[in-house]
Amino acid sequence: MTIETRVDPLKIGSPITRVDGSAKAVGDALYIADVGYPDALFGRFYRSSITRGTIESVSLPDLPAGYHIISKHDVPGHNRVPLITLDWPVFADREVRYLGQIIFLVVGPDPAVLDDLLNAIDVRYAETPAAVTIDEALALHGGPVHGADNLYSDLHLEHGDVEAAFARAARVFEGTYQTGFQEQLYLEPQGLVAIPEDGGITIHGSLQCPYYVKHAVEHAMGSAVSKVRVIQATTGGGFGGKEDYPEIMGTPLAVAAFKTGRPVKVILDRSEDLAFTSKRHPSRTRIKTALDESDTITAIDIDIQLDGGAYESYTTIVLMRAIFTSTGVYNIPAARVRGRGIATNTVPSGAFRGFGAPQAIFAIETHLDRIARSIAVDPLEYKRQFFLKRGDKTVTHGTIRENVVLDRMIEKIGELSGYPAKRKAYATADGGPVRRGIGISVFNHGCGFTGDGEQKIIKAEVGLRKTADDRVEILVANIDMGQGPHTTFRKLVSATLGIPIEQIVCQNPDTDRVPNSGPTVASRTMMVVGYLVQEAAKKLKTQWQSGKAIEIQEHYQMPPGVSWDQATLTGDAYAVFGWGVNVIEVSVDTRTWETQVTGAWGVYDVGKAIDELVVHGQIQGGMSQALGYGCLEKLQVDRDGRFMQASMADYMIPTSVDFPRTVAATIDNPYPYGPFGAKGMGEIVHDGGHAALVSAIAQAIGRDVCRIPAGPETLWEIMRDEA
Q1: Are 544 and 580 within one domain?
Q2: What is the pLDDT of residue 1?
Q3: What domain range includes position 67?
């Protein structure tokens, strides 16, 4: 008997069975490491053994038959990877900027022989003093890494009369807030295969952005190949980490496949993935606020510094989101924001869930918490007086167009968590070795690409292909890496056309078959691409003829009234925002300074949940990742820019026993330009948990906590320094 699953448009959020769940649960899903390729060669990267300097000489071993060493001399096109800029080489030229930079790719049929060949390569360098911290980079230690000043970008925002407000201030409150690296630690390491076929190159692998990889490989190969095709393999997580690094891997693999005429496969082992792939940007944010006699904020001055590492990657775009998020959910009459993306001799920083927002939210939420504590006021009550509302202007002079339902969200989280009563109770609790605290964070996240990226850069296009047997295929370049779009896209089409899920097909993207709907990043997959899928389904419904093949295309257009000036960074940086409120409850053992999270709550405005089970799965994972960022995930570099946490035994991420299940709710607040009212939700569920955690820890220990991860060592240092 055939079972049909139909989606009621009036109950769009009701969960259905994940279409990919069974194959993944029983082990039938094929990841790139599982896929065999006839006549394939394996590859190993030869990486720089110094942090900064120039290559003075190279001695290569004699190669057995069938083995090759691929270098910059083999690149037929351009030896630069096109990310935001063209600074990151496919293979190192004479200059080396970070420990582990790719110099050669050694390929051949036997991995054991490859290891021997790697050990036989001898590269001699002239070393230069490395700048591995923000302060060293700003001081031009060892000379500039990038440009004349080590700045990838220096961005400025200002509105209102900041100087006058500070001149009139009754007092000025200042603070500096620091965040560290964070590793994405997707379950499946980076892996790709490059295949020469039909005069072109096909890239098959674990990646988030098929068309980004296609563009990068085309740039490296130039006119040497007739076409580049990219096919996504089943992907075991990404969190932004498979946005830029597949381009960094894919370009040398394509060169190797072209030179050898055979498929070339590289799967990074976990230690190599940890050591050399992009991480979340470390940050340092300085905030000054002007307060009047009633302690109302009249102006704010913010300086954000991001450690971009040795090449720019996405630093400038991450920085844009950070400065646009820097004033939080607060309407402050006068604001000045400066943001700098700084070049250092560390592994280039890249994309990670939140993309600059978590760093900025930590700073502004902690700063307002500290002001509230300094005047003995509940942080939530202090923050509420500044909340943005519909019609207010953002820090970029954009307009809040949606209904802001923070009051409803705060009421709901109060019911779920008991925050108001607990905050008062813990404030007056008797001291003891184990102390309790509860904290709250309030935040938003701009959905979709920053500024005019959707309109002028991505120009998303989707398609629906109806076959003669009345099946419908969804044609998008967006990938499923565990977050569920292969299920939710089908739900949109089923609900719109009134046909069963089983009649709808959505496969891993292949750039030969699907249009460029843009990358799977920036909380845009459901809101932007899903909306286009729904609109295409509406058109298909009007043209439906049983037994007839039909194809529909739909193109992105900016919602009416939304405008942006990239030159001045003014206007609507985002068409709409997701909103979140988190509460975290902790106990801190003052004998060991260990923190136990005893409660976690989240309430979110995601417009409309397209599948409540998928959304709540994202909430659980997003909160766990945020709490790990806040107190557990310590990732440091030594003097050589080498990550000191070299394995999963050293770099600790949360397990299911470390944090309680998040008690969560979503508030319906439909967005007219999202499918069935949906907004982006992949990042908002991650953005604020660490800030609420630090607020709770600060209440428990009675001290300000201004840097994360706030593990036992950090808390001990805070208590020691303030003793």
Answers
A1: no
A2: 42
A3: 35-129+184-276
- The reported pLDDT for the residue numbered 243 is 97
The structure tokens listed for 550 are 């039909």
Same domain, yes or no, for 55 and 190? yes
Separation CA 624–CA 645 (nearest Å): 20
SS3 label, residue 314: coil
Which two tokens mark 658?
Answer: 């470390």
Average pLDDT over residues 356-365: 99
Task: Specify whether 463 is located in the same domain as 505.
Answer: yes
In a domain, 311, yes or no: no
What integer is the mean pLDDT of 356-372? Answer: 99
Token pair in block for residue 459 = 């120009």
Pair (386, 270) in one structural domain:
no
> For 194-226, how does the pLDDT look when each residue is reduced to its tens digit (9 = 90+)?
999 999 999 999 999 999 999 999 999 999 999
DSSP bridge partners of 515: none
pLDDT in tens, 422-465: 999 999 888 789 999 999 999 999 999 999 889 888 999 999 99
Q: In what order do the strands lie in the sheet containing 171-179?
A: 151-159, 335-343, 297-309, 283-291, 171-179
Contact 140, 323 (CB under 8 A): no
- CA-to-CA distance for 447 and 452, rounded, in angstroms? 12
The string of DSSP letters for 624-663 reads HHHHHHHHT----B-TTS-BS--STTTS----TTTSPPPE
Domain boundary among 261, 276, 291: 276
Cα 12 to chain centroid distance, Å, stands at 27
Instruction: Tell me the CATH number at 191.
Output: 3.90.1170.50
472 and 380 within one domain: no
Do 478 and 382 lie in one domain? The reply is no
- Block residue for tokens 């006839």: 38
| pLDDT of 106 over the 50 cut | yes
Tokens of 123: 């590269």
Q: Sign of torsion, CA 644 646 647 648?
A: positive
Q: Are 619 and 685 contacting, i.e. CB atoms less than 8 angstroms apart? A: yes
**Residue 567: predicted pLDDT:** 96
**Residue 378 confidence (pLDDT) above 50:** yes
Rounded to 5°, angle at Cα 110 from 106 and 116: 60
Assigned token pair, 147: 């440009």
Mean pLDDT over 264-278 rounds to 98
The answer, yes or no, to whether residue 56 has pLDDT greater than 80, is yes
Residues 429 and 464 placed together within one structural domain of the fold = no
Confidence grade of residue 721 (pLDDT, cut at 50, 70, 90):
confident
CB 343 within 8 A of CB 137: yes
559 SS3 class: coil
Which pTM value belongs to this model? 0.97
Tell me the per-residue pLDDT of 647-690, one tens digit each, with 9 for 90 and over.
Answer: 999 999 999 899 999 999 999 999 999 999 999 999 999 999 99
Contact 350, 279 (CB under 8 A): yes
CA distance 405 to 392: 14
> Who's near 160: CB < 8 A, 6+ residues apart?
299, 332, 333, 334, 335
Q: Rounded CA gap, 649 and 637, in Å?
A: 16
pLDDT at 2: 56
Amino acid code (one letter) for 99: L
Amino acid at 549: A
Sign of CA dihedral 471, 476, 479, 482: negative
On the question of a cis peptide bond just before residue 9, with omega within 30 degrees of 0, the verdict is no
Q: Which segments of 222-285 does DSSP mark as H helices, in order? A: 241-260, 270-276
- 3 has pLDDT over 70: no
**Which class for 552: exposed (0-12), middle (13-18), buried (19 or more C-beta within 10 A)?**
buried
What is the reported pLDDT for 430? 81
Domain identity same for 663 and 701: yes
Query: 195 - beta bridge partners?
Result: 202
What are the b/e assignments for 196-207, b being 16+ CB within 10 Å?
A: beeebbbbbbbb
Please check whether residue 338 is in contact with residue 154, taking contact to mean a CB–CB distance below 8 angstroms. yes
Phi, psi at 692, each rounded to 5° = -65, -40
